[in-house]
Amino acid sequence: MSIIKAGRLLQALLLLASALALAACGFHLRQNATLPPQMQRIHLTVNGGRDFERHLARALETSNITIEDNSGPGIAELHVPVAAFSTETLSAGGYVRITEYAVRYRVQFDVTDSAGQALVPSQLINMSREYSYDATNTVGNASQVEEIQRSLNDDMVQAILFRLQAASKHELAAPASATSTH
Hints:
Blueprint: H1 2-24, E1 41-46, H2 50-62, E2 66-68, E3 76-92, E4 98-112, E5 118-132, H3 138-179
Parallel strand pairs: 1-2, 1-3
Antiparallel strand pairs: 3-4, 4-5
């Protein structure tokens, strides 16, 4: 009986130690992006990538940003002229069989205010994932590529939100540093 109690005590101590380690390293759940007032209403224009546009709009709305159907006064413009996937051969096996690929995702975006002034200058983000190809399972290969593309879409949306949030923090810090140089 005492061995069981000692085991439970050890489990509880390990759980407590894990929780303390996570708290000490700064772990916290991801929060919604906080964007500046100039970006609270956005008209979104995406060239290509319907899933990407839907995911980006949903993420912006989750961050309490209003997505407008049309541009106008007080509405920022988030332009995504490039959102494109490509596939690249990485290696070939025996008898010139392709055994590894990389799925690459390239997205370019910028944000302007309603007067056309840049709030976030043009940004280019490149992401990629590598995978092995099994010539005996071509159906599995197509679904693997689709899953990689979904994953890259999710990661790209987060990367854009982080950049928008970083731009807003930089914008807020700029006036403070300008006033402190007197």
